[in-house]
Amino acid sequence: MTKHYFDKAYAARDTQVIRSLYDEWAGSYDEDIKAQGYATPDRAAATLAEFLDNKDAPIFDIGCGTGLSGAALKQAGFTTIDGGDVSAAMLAVARKKIYTAIC
């Protein structure tokens, strides 16, 4: 249930709790967040593309989660996109997307 995850995510303050929550949520995160109208990755990528001429410049996506921002950056023409996250399960999903390196 999406609301269940959102409520827990907004209430979480402990790193271990946050890591566990996002590990559990990884399988449905993309669908859940998109269903809420989440548009930040596309907007951020479009803005970065507007102001950064060198699309080969390395980008590090901190808190990359499942890779929604990495996919948007790739769609905007960026080529060297790395990501990092505290959730191993989120990184496993992101690894299947666009990132050059994951940590």
TrEMBL record:
It comes from Sulfitobacter profundi. Pfam families: Methyltransf_25. Keywords: Methyltransferase, Transferase. It comes from the Bacteria. Transmembrane segments: none annotated. One of its GO terms (molecular function) is methyltransferase activity. This is Class I SAM-dependent DNA methyltransferase. GO terms for biological process: methylation. Gene3D superfamilies: Vaccinia Virus protein VP39. The keyword Methyltransferase applies.
